[in-house]
């Protein structure tokens, strides 16, 4: 599927030579069965199954003779048949797809494995795509919304149901609001919650000093949400505390709190 093989210039060049170009389907090794190396399903190379023996070089000695070769051919045929039967039970992709042209589908991401996922947060499927044409051997030509076409196997496709279609089947209407609306009250609370750090701000560090006593129980019982803040000049440290404006101003008005803040400066 490289651009050097799918370009129009390369196709024109092959047509001028009378060569028919056939591309393999991406991420589908089952469609590229003709190969010279050992097959995982049969356990033997195609030439070994065809001729009933391993191809030998001139230096290899052949002492088995004709009877040995015939027995070996029968043995290889039996082994290949048994292995094919076992592999067919394991492979879940060999099925007759019920997808048709014109339907909307999702495409399995080719970067991810079919039986696993690298990252839990990554989407396993892309799309939606529209099926343009169905070819033999469960192969489909799909098209994206921007017009890009791909040739994929049915094992990488699942039927797509839009939200509007599902709601219509249930007799409900799709909401025109956003999925996660941020109304004015939520926005105001967020702005009030996250303001800049100042003596009268929402966030303040209240730390224990070596020479001063602990703060009042009411101050120390404030909510602790952030990690500890350590300082070499302090004997102990408290997490970041969150107080409202009114409560913080009330504490700062007391003389004891002002002394603590002045000692920390």
TrEMBL record:
Protein name: Integrase catalytic domain-containing protein
Highest classification ranks of the organism: Eukaryota, Fungi, Fungi incertae sedis, Zoopagomycota, Kickxellomycotina
Source organism (scientific name): Smittium simulii
């Amino acid at each position: 599927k490289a651009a050097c093989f799918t370009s129009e210039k390369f196709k024109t060049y092959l047509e001028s030579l009378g060569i028919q170009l056939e591309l393999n389907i991406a991420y589908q090794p089952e469609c590229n069965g003709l190969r010279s190396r050992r097959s995982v399903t049969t356990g033997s190379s195609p030439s070994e199954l065809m001729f009933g023996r391993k191809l030998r070089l001139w230096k290899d000695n052949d002492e088995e003779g004709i009877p040995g070769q015939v027995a070996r051919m029968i043995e290889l045929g039996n082994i290949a048949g048994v292995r094919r039967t076992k592999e067919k039970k394991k492979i879940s992709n060999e099925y007759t797809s019920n997808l048709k042209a014109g339907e909307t589908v999702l495409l399995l991401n080719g970067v991810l494995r079919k039986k696993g996922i690298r990252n839990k947060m990554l989407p396993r499927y892309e799309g939606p795509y529209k099926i343009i044409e169905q070819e033999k051997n469960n192969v489909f030509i799909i098209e994206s919304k921007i017009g890009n076409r791909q040739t994929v196997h049915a094992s990488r496709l699942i039927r797509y149901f839009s939200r509007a279609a599902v709601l219509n089947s249930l007799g409900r209407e799709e909401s025109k609001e956003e999925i996660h609306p941020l109304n004015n009250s939520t926005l105001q609370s967020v702005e009030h919650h996250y303001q800049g750090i100042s003596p009268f701000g929402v966030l303040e560090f209240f730390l224990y000093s070596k020479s001063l006593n602990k703060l009042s129980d009411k101050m120390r019982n404030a909510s602790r949400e952030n990690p500890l803040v350590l300082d070499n000049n302090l004997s102990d440290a408290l997490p970041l505390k969150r107080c409202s404006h009114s409560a913080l101003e009330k504490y700062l008005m007391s003389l004891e709190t002002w002394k603590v803040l002045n000692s920390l400066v």
